[in-house]
Write a structure and sequence with these properties.
The complex is a heterodimer of chains A (286) and B (227).
Chain A: E1 9-20, E2 24-25, E3 31-32, E4 40-43, H1 45-60, E5 70-71, H2 87-90, H3 94-108, H4 110-115, E6 116-119, E7 126-129, E8 132-134, E9 137-142, E10 146-152, H5 158-163, E11 170-188, H6 190-196, H7 200-212, E12 224-235, H8 244-248, E13 251-255, E14 269-273, E15 280-284
Antiparallel strand pairs in A: 1-11, 1-12, 2-3, 4-9, 6-7, 8-11, 9-11, 10-11, 12-15, 13-14
Helix pairs in contact in A: 1-7
Chain B: E1 2-7, E2 11-20, H1 39-49, E3 55-64, E4 69-78, E5 89-90, E6 95-117, H2 126-139, E7 156-159, E8 174-184, E9 202-211, E10 214-216
Antiparallel strand pairs in B: 1-6, 2-6, 2-7, 3-6, 3-10, 4-6, 8-9, 9-10
Classes of the chains: A alpha+beta (286), B mainly beta (227).
Chain lengths: 286, 227
């Protein structure tokens, strides 16, 4: 185990999207996720965790101790099967196998160490609870998803071409949010970090990933997405020095003075931060 | 399992969050939540704040403070567990789209006591753990962030002191049917406080009745709890 982190952290990430779809809803034909009762947009926890994994894979290239277990095919940098026999696990007594396997997995894979994992070690799934906990991100204001019809000057099959007598055009649909600012709350537990060996280096890599994750996730669907603000509340104490909800309440997001109508850029918002209580340091990472 | 059967004073903790999913065991693939927090989820929230092998939490009552409302979310999930022998999972090969029927904007008051277990040493006593819990809950301290059924549904919590009035539960009465009471864990194989379920871990159920927003929870040894 390397030196695990010694502080509790609660963080607030503000990110925005311009003319893109931050997170499609499979239940609604890939429309941007929306909370039907409030009209606010949603981005799921797993969507953000995927981006952190992809960033770390890109940044570290599967380096020792920074490999990613749950990979996305989009990043094919090194799929060389190491296929090494884990003597360290094999040699152990039956009762200690599970623990050895847990340690091995936490040591090798950044995402296991950070987010945890359900693992088939022992009789049935032994679990690793990771120190980092994301929640659903929600938009600050209501979002209005737009639907755009687009055309393609080609068809996929012969049959389609024949049907159109050689006109060869197809229509598609694309959904975007013209602009939205999303807010996500997250938590990092020092005691759980001690169990998985999540270290200060891992933590710095995590902040780096959260700040830069959209920079390497460009695509036709996403439009312009950026991390705008990352507020980190660092508690002196492992268990924390203040309730998380009181810290999150210190961050006040208002419409900028003189900005009217629907918000269309980050300039339409003003983010104010109150003073953190004793024992808590506010770090503005971005 | 009882240390000496002595129980602490009654603690009251208000917990709330944007979403919650207290998954019904019969609907675990596409998760569907119970209408109300289960005793086992309430225990999990308390243990996130304070737990030692020397104590165990006994949830006595759960007050529902917010109307029961629902929200459906479909996500991409991975359909397999990790194995140290594999070199990673390609999400495209293992992708499963699963919906979840979650609760939204929930708030509860958990009424619970703690008691000593057989693992309590000579230096352990109820007063010590009572004070520890009060200190932590007052300061908003926690071992890890408590959550409402699933870790993505983080919970905020605040202690309701003895002299403070209880928040008013909603005026809803409903038979909730059989509800998960808790999993009777077999902790013999635990290492470093990391629990792996074995075949001896068994669920138990009780007949849950919401009366004017209050769910009374039977004691573990009670005949009302069925294995």
């Amino acid at each position: 185990m390397r030196n695990p982190i010694q502080n509790r952290y609660d963080f607030v990430l503000l990110f925005d999207v311009k003319d893109g779809n931050p997170n499609g809803d499979p239940d609604a034909g890939n429309l941007p996720r929306i909370d039907p009762e409030t009209g606010h947009g949603l981005v799921t926890d797993v969507c953000l965790k995927r981006k952190v994994r992809n960033y770390v894979q890109l940044e570290k290239g599967g380096a020792v101790a920074f490999d990613i277990f749950v990979k996305e095919r989009a990043i094919l940098n090194n799929l060389i099967d190491e296929a090494h026999e884990q003597d360290i696990v094999k040699s152990k007594e039956k009762g200690d196998k599970t623990e050895a396997a847990r340690q091995f997995m936490c040591g090798k894979y950044y995402d296991v160490r950070t987010f945890g994992a359900v693992m088939s070690t022992g009789k049935n799934a032994g679990q690793v609870r990771g120190p980092v906990q994301f929640t659903f991100a929600r938009s600050v204001d209501q979002i209005v998803p737009l639907e755009h019809s687009i055309t393609r000057m080609a068809v996929a099959t012969e049959a389609e071409a024949e049907k159109q007598q050689g006109d060869n055009r197809t229509m598609g649909r694309k959904f975007t949010v013209p602009y939205a600012l999303y807010c996500c709350h997250g938590f990092i537990s020092a005691p759980l970090a001690a169990q998985t060996g999540f270290s200060e280096d891992d933590l710095n890599l995590f902040w780096q990933a959260v700040i830069n994750m959209f920079e390497h996730d460009r695509s036709a669907a996403r439009g312009l997405m950026s991390s705008r603000k990352l507020f980190v509340f660092k508690h002196e104490n492992k268990m924390g020095n203040a309730p998380a909800h009181k810290l999150f309440d210190l961050i006040d997001i208002q419409r900028a003075e003189g900005s009217t109508g629907p918000a269309r850029s980050f300039k339409d918002y003003v983010v104010k931060v109150g003073a953190a209580p004793d024992g808590v340091t506010l770090l503005e990472k971005l | 399992m009882n240390g000496n059967g002595k129980r602490s004073a009654l603690f009251r903790l208000k917990v709330w969050g944007r979403n919650a999913c207290f998954t019904r065991p019969e609907m675990k693939v596409e998760r569907v939540s119970y209408d109300v927090m289960t005793p086992s989820a309430a225990r999990g929230v308390l243990e996130a704040i304070l737990w030692k092998p020397a104590i165990r939490w006994l949830v006595e009552r759960i007050d529902v403070l917010a109307p029961i409302r629902w929200e459906s979310v479909r996500r991409n999930e991975v359909g397999s567990v990790m194995s140290p022998r594999s070199n990673g999972i390609f999400i495209e090969d293992q992708r499963q789209q699963r919906a979840g029927l979650f609760l939204r904007d929930v708030a509860y008051t958990i009424h619970a006591r703690l008691e000593l277990t057989a693992k309590a040493g000579a230096e352990d006593n109820l007063t010590k753990f009572q004070e520890m819990f009060l200190r932590r809950a007052e300061k908003g301290q926690c071992f890890h962030r408590p959550y409402l059924g699933c870790r993505e549904f983080a919970a905020d919590f605040t202690l309701i002191r003895q002299e403070e009035p209880l928040p008013e539960p909603i005026g809803i009465s409903r038979d909730l049917g059989w509800m998960l009471y808790d999993i009777q864990h077999d902790n013999r194989a635990d290492k470093n406080h990391v629990h792996c379920c074995t075949e001896s871990c068994r669920p138990s159920f009780f007949r849950a009745e919401l009366s004017n927003g209050v769910l009374l929870v039977p004691s573990p040894g009670d005949g009302e709890v069925r294995q």
